């Protein structure tokens, strides 16, 4: 009954999220230009960012390097919320390209470097700086220069002075753009540098819809290991589900038979079955509300929201083309998060009220601000660092205020409504007898302690997702686009997490320990702890990232991600387990 209501509420918000997505998709940034050109019309080239090649998050505005720049910087005015958040700032380049017009070597500017400009360039080239530009929303990359050591062991530094653009067109659209950096010149202070470019157009038969294909690394993402990992996880799911049903069905049946309360026919069976121990002994305590009820309700509420939110986002992403638009994933996440806040309030408020909580306004605030608050604090810290480095990752004040406004005008009210509705619809306490005095938890072996469950609970769920994690982490370098896989892995993760926490809770209850709520939540949440450890491994072993800035940003983002993942998994584990617990204990209600 309650679950049915939750299902309906969930569906309503799926619908809302879809509306939200459509809304995002129609924002000006996607539709600023129809991507259609007349012959000879200017195709704008936008300079975006420049930064060290090994450090994907360490980015600076292109004109922070002493390239010659126009007197007045023209910023692209079609920037969306997501673009500002992930650090895009498009500035019109001095290179002028016209649709279908070839240009022979043409000067951009000439410039002689001062001593300090020379130092800046030298340092940038030694750190392998590269830059990114956009042309008709297609990304273009180029290296600033190159360096090598000559035989005498002296560092030679060259800067590229010629940009060769090869473009292709189909009908009235731009299909492809290649940039070749040419004409390296020894970097010296004082001597003039002549920057030039050339443009060459050719016709192609590739269609406009396929033009993004070349950025998607098919052989990498659809590599056999991907299929293998899915297959592997799938086998694990079958195995686990089989195991859970086998163990539980058999054990429970035996337990019921032993307690002699399963059926009426059994009622006349011998009551004193020697060792009356096990989960049944704690039926007067198992529904006792967990300690720190308010925090727990907020976490469970937020987890409910994340479960549905992630599912919606992945479905939308699997259907759409997130990768082709800058920052869409982030915008979609924020807007959908705000729209699904109702679910958090509903789940959290309902749970809180069912367990006799009275401070529901406080509960509502904690639910609404728990994750956003932590994410905001981390973002604030990163932003301070980005500001002091003059990085492009700095989030402008206006954008921060916009995000805050979305939170306070959409998320907060929706959480409030959700809490009130949850409290009234879903908040009637269950009619179970709870002992006045909490039962003492018996002494037990170390491996039955809750912390062991918590530590080990995450191993299998992590095992089912870690290969996908590898692919997700490479999205620092490549366009991640196989959201269909991710959706599949998500479903597998849910099943594995639920199975594992049910088994672990069964053992916990059987050792007459009724502290299952936090234990099941945390043992599922520990998956995120393993993901974080994996990200540390990835950082040191698989990337060449270095420096304070990149390290802080990497781990800051990972902390946010793992926190969300912990809440998500924790809630999945807890929801599954509480269904299980309710089921086994209501079957013995009869006595
Ligand atoms: C761009 O480079 C790729 C790979 O080298 C090549 O296949 C393609 O034809 C080039 N396109 C243009 C327009 O030059």
From TrEMBL:
The chain crosses the membrane at residues 227-249, 293-323, 329-353, 365-389, 395-421, 451-473, 479-509, 521-540, 552-581. Keywords: Membrane, Signal, Transmembrane, Transmembrane helix. It is found in: Membrane. It comes from the Eukaryota. It is a multi-pass membrane protein. GO terms for biological process: protein localization to membrane. GO terms for cellular component: membrane. Its main location: membrane. Pfam families: EMP70. Belongs to the nonaspanin (TM9SF) (TC 9.A.2) family. PANTHER family: TRANSMEMBRANE 9 SUPERFAMILY MEMBER 3, TRANSMEMBRANE 9 SUPERFAMILY PROTEIN. This is Transmembrane 9 superfamily member. The lineage of its organism: Eukaryota, Amoebozoa, Discosea, Longamoebia, Centramoebida.
């Amino acid at each position: 009954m309650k679950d049915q209501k939750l299902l309906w509420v969930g569906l309503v918000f799926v619908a809302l999220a879809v509306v939200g997505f459509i809304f995002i998709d129609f924002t000006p940034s996607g539709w600023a230009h129809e991507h259609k050109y007349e012959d000879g019309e200017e195709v704008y080239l936008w300079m975006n960012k420049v930064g060290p090649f090994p450090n994907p998050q360490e980015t600076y505005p292109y004109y922070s390097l002493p390239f010659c720049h126009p007197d007045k910087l023209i910023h692209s005015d079609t920037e969306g919320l997501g673009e500002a958040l992930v650090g895009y700032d498009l500035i019109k380049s001095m290179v002028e390209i016209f649709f279908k017009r070839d240009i022979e070597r043409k000067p951009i500017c000439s410039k002689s470097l001062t001593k300090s400009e020379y130092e800046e360039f030298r340092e940038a080239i030694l750190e392998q700086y590269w830059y990114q530009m956009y042309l008709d929303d297609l990304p273009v990359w180029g290296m600033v220069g190159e360096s090598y050591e000559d035989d005498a062991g002296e560092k030679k530094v060259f800067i590229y002075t010629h940009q060769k653009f090869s473009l292709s067109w189909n009908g009235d659209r731009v299909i492809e753009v290649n940039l070749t950096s040419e004409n390296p010149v020894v970097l010296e202070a004082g001597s003039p540098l002549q920057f030039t470019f050339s443009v060459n157009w050719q016709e192609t038969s590739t269609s406009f819809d396929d033009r993004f294909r070349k950025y998607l690394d098919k052989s990498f993402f659809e590599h056999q290991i991907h299929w293998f990992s899915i297959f592997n996880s799938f086998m694990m799911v079958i195995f686990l589900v089989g195991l859970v049903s086998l163990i539980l069905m058999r054990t429970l049946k035996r337990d019921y038979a032993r307690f002699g309360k399963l059926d009426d026919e059994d009622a006349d069976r011998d009551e004193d079955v020697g060792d009356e121990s096990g989960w049944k002994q704690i039926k007067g305590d198992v529904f006792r509300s967990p300690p720190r009820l308010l925090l727990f309700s907020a976490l469970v509420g937020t987890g409910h929201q994340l479960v549905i939110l992630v599912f919606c986002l992945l479905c939308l992403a699997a259907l759409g083309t997130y990768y082709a638009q800058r920052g869409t994933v982030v915008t979609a996440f924020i807007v959908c998060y705000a729209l699904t806040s109702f679910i958090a309030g509903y789940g959290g408020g309902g749970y809180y009220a069912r367990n006799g909580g009275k401070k529901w306004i406080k509960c509502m605030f904690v639910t609404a601000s728990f994750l956003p608050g932590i994410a905001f604090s981390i973002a604030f810290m990163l932003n301070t660092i980005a500001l002091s480095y003059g990085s492009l990752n700095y989030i402008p004040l206006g954008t921060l205020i916009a995000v805050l406004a979305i939170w306070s005008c959409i998320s907060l009210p929706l959480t409030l409504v959700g809490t009130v509705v949850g409290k009234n619809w879903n908040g009637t306490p269950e009619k179970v007898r709870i002992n006045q005095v909490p039962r003492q938890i018996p002494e037990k072996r170390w491996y039955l302690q809750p912390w062991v469950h918590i530590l080990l609970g995450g191993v299998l769920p992590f095992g089912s997702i870690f290969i996908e994690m590898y692919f997700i982490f490479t999205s620092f370098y490549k366009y991640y686009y196989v959201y269909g896989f991710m959706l599949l892995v998500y479903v597998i993760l849910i099943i594995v997490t639920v199975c594992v926490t049910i088994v672990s809770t069964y053992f916990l209850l059987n050792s007459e320990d009724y502290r299952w709520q936090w234990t099941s939540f945390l043992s599922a949440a520990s998956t995120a702890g393993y993901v974080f450890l994996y990200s540390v491994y990835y950082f040191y072993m698989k990337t060449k990232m270095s420096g304070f800035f990149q390290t802080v940003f990497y781990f800051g983002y990972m902390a946010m991600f793992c926190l969300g993942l912990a809440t998500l998994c924790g809630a999945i584990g807890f929801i599954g387990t509480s269904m299980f617990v309710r089921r086994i204990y209501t079957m013995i209600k009869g006595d």
